[in-house]
Amino acid sequence: MSASTIGELLQAQDFTIATAESCTSGLLCHLFGAVPGASAWLLGGWVTYTNELKVSQLGVEQNLIKEHGAVSAQVAAAMAQGAAKRSGADVALSITGIAGPTGGSEAKPVGTIFIGCKVQGYVEVREFRFSGERNAVQEHAALAALHMAQLQLKGEHVASLANQHGEVNAF
After folding, report:
1. Share of the chain above pLDDT 70, in %
2. Which CATH number fits domain 3-170: 3.90.950.20, 3.30.70.1140, 2.120.10.30, 3.30.457.10?
């Protein structure tokens, strides 16, 4: 799976895409932007590192963050929904998590990542647990987001992906 493959799938369906990222700091959007011709399907992206920006830029409800934490399936879903709504994109990907080396807890250790993928009206969120240094966790997260997008754009359902933790959440 690659960003160019996602671009081809988007173009075949006349879809556009937007991203909303936290712990990956725009890496996913960078991968898309590096594809020649990406302007035909990439609308843009947000790097919403703080909770305040998740709320003001993406419309994530503050109570979701308070109740579930910024690193949660609910917030990943809201980030993807907000990116799609605010950009007008047919597809939106979101990534929120703990890339490390600090910030983890027993319940959400370093390497915990939630990725949201919205294709038209359906939002799927998966939790992952990646290991390695900060940049490795970020790269794994961006590649997992590409994989999720590829599956959804092809209409394929896979119960579990590599490093996935738990079941698929649908919103």
Report:
1. 100
2. 3.90.950.20
